[in-house]
């Protein structure tokens, strides 16, 4: 049985002070036990986040890393630094990194390897843009991304670590959600691909999230699908009350 993972990706939002207020509020709200919850903040809030959530079941994540351990890489953050803070997850290949910051699959592959080497769990994001969806090549696009991003990585390295987030770019921050059937069909496609690339046992164990305009009103419908094991949530994760509704979707 895969335990669902609902993760809030704060993107470039929330100061350290705002993070403290969010966490205080979240603490007073009741959270679900059946779901793993993760908060993914900017680097500047990670220390506050990990210290605060240390004693709780809530996991933490970073939004990016660089693949070297240390050195002359001005402005970058290494896996060692994240691990030292007690961070659990790291997003790799978010579409905003791919498009705005021109991160390509070769770089993302190195980042995933670095994360795994340091025992950080990668949340690998993949997904097509609107034009690709209109041309009905979303499966080809996602397959190419996953094949390249996981290149040279063995099955053993991925067990209980890899999470994949299917995030169609046209649904991110736009209010347009993929229909739950379309999301399910892509998540199933990804699981079948993992069977092809590795084996059924690994494919069955990997959690595949959907992301793109998930909110309290549509989360239950999305989560009801067989191959969707969680959500990566941007906008609706910034407010503690809304986030609490998301993680309690089953109640
Ligand atoms: P959104 O973002 O929920 O605001 O659409 C999702 C994401 O980019 O991870």
Widest β-sheet, arrangement of strands: 1-2-3-4-5-6-7-8
- Largest sheet descriptor: 8 strands, parallel, barrel
Mean of residue pLDDT values: 96
Structural class: alpha/beta
Per DSSP E runs of 2 or more residues, the count of β-strands stands at 8
Number of helices: 12
Distance between the termini: 19 Å
As a percent range, the share of helical residues equals 40-55%
Bound small molecules, which ones?
A: 2-phosphoglycolic acid
Instruction: Indicate the radius of gyration in whole angstroms.
Output: 17 Å
Low-confidence stretches: none
Choose one word for the global shape: globular
Helix and strand pattern: EHEHEHEHHEHHHEHHEHEH
Strand content: 5-15%
Structure description:
This protein has 251 residues and is α/β, with parallel strands linked by helices. Helix content is 41%, strand content 15%. It contains twelve helices and eight strands. It has an eight-stranded parallel barrel with strand order 1-2-3-4-5-6-7-8, surrounded by five helices. Helix 2 (46-53) links the parallel strand 2 and strand 3 (59-62). Helix 1 (16-28) crosses helix 12 (240-247) and helix 7 crosses helix 9 (180-197). The model has no long low-confidence stretch (mean pLDDT 96). The site of 2-phosphoglycolic acid has 13 residues, from strand 8.
């Amino acid at each position: 049985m895969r335990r669902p993972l609902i993760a809030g990706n704060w993107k470039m939002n929330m100061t350290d002070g705002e993070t403290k207020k969010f966490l205080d509020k979240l603490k007073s709200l009741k959270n679900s036990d059946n779901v793993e919850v993760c908060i993914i903040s900017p680097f500047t809030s990670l220390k506050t986040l990990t210290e605060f959530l240390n004693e709780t079941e809530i996991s933490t994540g970073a939004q990016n890393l660089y693949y070297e351990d240390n050195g002359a890489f001005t402005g970058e953050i290494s896996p060692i630094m994240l691990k030292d803070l007690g961070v659990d997850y790291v997003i790799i290949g978010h579409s905003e990194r791919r498009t705005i910051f021109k991160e390509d699959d070769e770089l993302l592959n190195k980042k995933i390897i670095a994360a795994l080497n340091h025992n950080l769990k990668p949340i690998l994001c993949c997904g097509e843009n609107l034009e690709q969806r209109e041309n009905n090549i979303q499966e080809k696009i996602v397959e190419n991304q996953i094949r390249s991003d996981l290149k040279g990585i063995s099955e053993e390295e991925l067990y209980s670590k890899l999470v994949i987030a299917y995030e169609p770019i046209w649904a991110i921050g736009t209010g347009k959600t993929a229909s739950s059937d379309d999301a399910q069909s892509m998540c199933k496609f990804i699981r079948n691909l993992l069977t092809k690339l590795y084996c059924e046992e690994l494919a069955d164990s990997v959690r595949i999230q959907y992301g793109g305009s998930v909110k309290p009103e549509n989360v239950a419908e999305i989560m009801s699908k067989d191959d969707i094991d969680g959500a990566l949530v941007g906008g609706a994760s910034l407010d503690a009350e809304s986030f609490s509704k998301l993680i309690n979707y089953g109640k």
